[in-house]
Design a protein that fits this description.
Layout (H helix, E strand, L loop, with lengths): L5 H5 L6 H12 L5 E2 L11 H11 L14 H15 L9 E4 L2 H12 L5 E6 L3 H10 L2 E6 L3 H13 L7 E5 L11 H14 L2 E5 L25 E6 H4 L8 E5 L1 H14 L5 H12 L3 H24 L11 E5 L8 H13 L1 E2 L1 E2 L10 E5 L4 H15 L7 H4 L4
Parallel strand pairs: 1-10, 3-4, 3-5, 5-6, 6-7
Antiparallel strand pairs: 2-8, 7-8, 9-12, 11-12
Helix pairs in contact: 2-13, 3-11, 4-11, 5-6, 5-10, 7-8, 12-14
Length: 404
């Protein structure tokens, strides 16, 4: 029996698995691991959202199948959010669809629009689903260096000229996961201009739209005149309202792309549990002060991380947005690479981070630090890191092995 399944063969080994394995082993031994690895928000979902979920769940009618596009009230709430936040008007029936998290929406859109052999331009480093969603669907991925937004924009032309066939789509993600970089509206204007010239769809991931630390909130690509002709944008309630386990996201924008995603989803799911959708609408329509509070917590954690790690001997640039810091591997550890540095940090400092190589080859030399531990734990991590950094790199292999 053939077990070489086509799509599974296209997926490389999960690069984070080794760090995850060491983390699980350490915890099984009773070790206290300070976990900055997964971007898993730790703050409680605001009470008014949970209360609406409980209220709706008590209605037996809400336990029936829901709508894969999202209930009408939820789609209207997302349209209201876009008009309030970005000044963008959307049609709730044609230009918005709910998804089981933005990750699911992105992966299903890839299945909806991709034929085997299509070329998709993806930034590198990038959140894994941006490439692997299309890879699973059968596309060929052309990685475009994106150590800065300017580099990504400047490299798109060459990537397009050297792609056969011409690219089907390109991906943008700002505020970026993992680099935490941000862009202004002029960047999106250039992207839309380029994409229209080359007849390329644009897929924007805006999951961190409301986690920012400067005065100017990040823009939406849909603010650009004519963007809805070729662009779709994904968002999530996971970070904005601290609702990661609720699995509620959205796509908004081009009617054709929304329709394609709706067609695929109609075969795959009946939508999220209706009480979750009702609660999500309450989140979008309700008081937004909690969003400011959540943002303030991340900003405070960011400041503590940067200050305490600098005192420990590890200079980490302060991110302008997102719930991550993109931290360069300390100079004397650079020869180890991000994977070995992350493993050593876990073993010796009891601190878990994500190796930059897991986000693409241009992520090498960095690790991603998620702001998902409280300030006390961040300071504790910095103390552990300080001790680790004084150990030096001239350790024998046996010294790097986890304790038994």
């Amino acid at each position: 029996m053939n077990t070489d399944f086509y799509r599974i063969k296209r997926l490389p080994p999960y690069i984070f698995e080794e760090v995850n394995r060491l983390k699980a082993q350490a915890r099984a031994r009773g070790e206290d691991i300070i976990d900055f690895g997964m971007g898993n928000p730790d703050m409680a979902t605001p009470d008014y959202i949970v209360d609406k979920l409980c209220e709706t769940a008590r209605d037996p009618r809400a336990h029936r199948y829901s709508a894969s596009r999202g209930i009408k009230g939820l789609r209207k709430a997302h349209c209201a959010y876009y008009e309030r936040r970005f000044g963008v008007k959307l049609d709730p029936d044609k230009e918005v669809i709910a998804a089981l998290g933005s990750k699911e929406g992105f992966a299903n859109l890839a299945m909806a629009i991709t034929a085997p052999g299509d070329v998709v331009l993806v930034p590198n480093p990038a959140y894994p689903i941006h490439a692997f969603g299309f890879m699973i669907a059968g596309a060929a991925i052309r990685h475009v260096p994106a150590t800065s937004p300017e580099e990504y924009l400047s490299r798109l032309g060459a990537a397009t000229r050297h792609s056969v066939p011409s690219p089907l789509a390109l991906v943008v993600n700002y505020p970026s996961n993992p680099t935490a970089q941000v862009v202004e509206l002029d960047f999106y204007k250039e992207i839309i201009k380029f994409a229209k010239k080359h007849e390329i769809w644009v897929l924007s991931d805006l999951a961190y739209a409301d986690i920012y630390f400067g005065d100017a909130p990040p823009p939406s690509i849909l603010q650009v005149d004519g963007a809805k002709d070729i662009a779709i944008e994904f968002q999530s309630l996971s970070k904005t309202y601290s609702m990661p386990g609720w699995r509620m996201g959205f796509a908004a924008g081009n009617e054709k792309l929304i329709g394609a995603l709706a067609r695929i989803k109609s075969y795959l799911d009946y939508g999220a549990f209706t009480p979750i959708q009702v609660a999500a609408a309450a989140a979008l329509n309700g008081p937004q002060g909690m969003v400011d509070d959540i943002r303030a917590v991340y900003k405070s954690r960011r400041d503590v991380l940067v200050k305490s790690m600098a005192a420990a001997g590890w200079d980490i640039p302060a991110p302008e947005a997102s719930m991550f810091a993109w931290a360069p591997v300390p100079e004397k550890y650079k020869t180890l690479g991000s994977m070995e540095f992350a493993k050593d940090l876990l073993i010796h400092a009891k601190v878990a981070v994500s190796p930059g190589i897991g986000f693409g080859e241009y992520g090498e030399g960095y690790v991603r630090v998620a702001l998902v531990e409280n300030e006390h734990r961040i300071r504790q991590a910095a103390r552990n890191v300080k001790k680790f950094l004084t150990m030096g790199t001239n350790m024998a292999p046996k010294d790097l092995a986890p304790a038994k």
